[in-house]
Design goal:
The protein has 11 helices and 4 strands. With about 250 residues, the chain is α+β, with helices and mostly antiparallel strands. A hairpin with a 5-residue loop joins strand 3 and strand 4. Helix 3 runs antiparallel to helix 4.
């Protein structure tokens, strides 16, 4: 496509270009550095006198320190409001947006957590998720008989999804709601009853009274044994037997 640019006067430029049909067209542009030191370019019509009037209007706005990016921010806000939790979760998995490389088992756990979160948060936009509805979700899951450790895992994944949303360019969220996850170690040591689901989260076989007691008394130590490791005392005892110790 053939085209040419010409400076008409300070801050006013004329562009002439050939259309697909072969005809020539004219367009005028305002170009100047605004009060913030940012270069701006505006299309201001195809008539010279109208373009001069519009340039004068833009200069007046600039002298009044006009916020040139307000409409852009409004459009971005509308775009953010349009993205629901359900849509964002699917995008997260489809585009593999986890900051860290996950093993297949970890991906499956995140998908299970999302499947539990989606019925409650799915229709909410990301910016509508707040501390209040997070607390409502915890109450709902607790009423269903789910243990606090299991709920912690689900809400931890919710927090991760929101954090990843803030890291997008442009960000889908400016900030995330602050909500605490109950400390699992202190809850366990206080004698709080651990549900079957929670013993699973701690790596304990449900129904194993001895192992459930161990997980309750020292969950941090138990987590070190999740991948087939023996308790230190058991290992020392086994080694003694193999060596013929009394």
């Amino acid at each position: 496509m053939k085209e040419s640019f010409e400076r008409v006067q300070k801050h006013l430029y004329k562009r002439q270009y050939q259309t697909g049909s072969g005809d020539w067209a004219t367009a005028y542009y305002a170009r100047f550095v605004d009060w913030q030191g940012i270069r701006r370019k505006f299309a201001i019509g195809d008539d010279l006198e109208d373009a001069r009037d519009e340039l004068g209007r833009l200069h007046t706005l600039n002298k009044g320190r006009h916020d040139w990016d307000a409409e852009k921010r409004k459009a971005e806000e509308q775009r953010r409001r349009a993205i629901t939790f359900s849509q964002w979760g699917k995008t997260y998995f489809d585009e593999d947006l986890s900051p860290n490389k996950l093993r297949p088992g970890s991906v499956d756990r995140e998908k299970r957590a999302f499947a539990l979160l989606e019925p409650f948060f799915g229709d909410l936009s990301l910016i509508e998720i707040n501390k209040k509805n997070v607390l409502e979700y915890r109450k709902k899951r607790t009423a269903e008989g789910v243990g606090f450790i299991t709920i912690n895992r689900e809400l931890a994944f919710l927090r991760k999804l929101l954090n990843v949303a803030t890291d997008q360019e442009p960000p889908l969220l400016e900030s995330i709601p602050r909500f605490k996850l109950p400390n699992e170690t202190s809850r366990a040591r206080s004698g709080t009853k651990i549900s079957a689901a929670d013993t699973y989260q701690l790596g304990v076989a449900p129904g194993s009274r001895r192992d459930t007691r161990r997980a309750t008394q020292d969950p941090e130590r138990w987590r070190l044994c999740l991948h087939g490791q023996e308790w230190a005392a058991d290992r020392e005892h086994s080694d003694g037997i193999r060596k013929g110790a009394p």
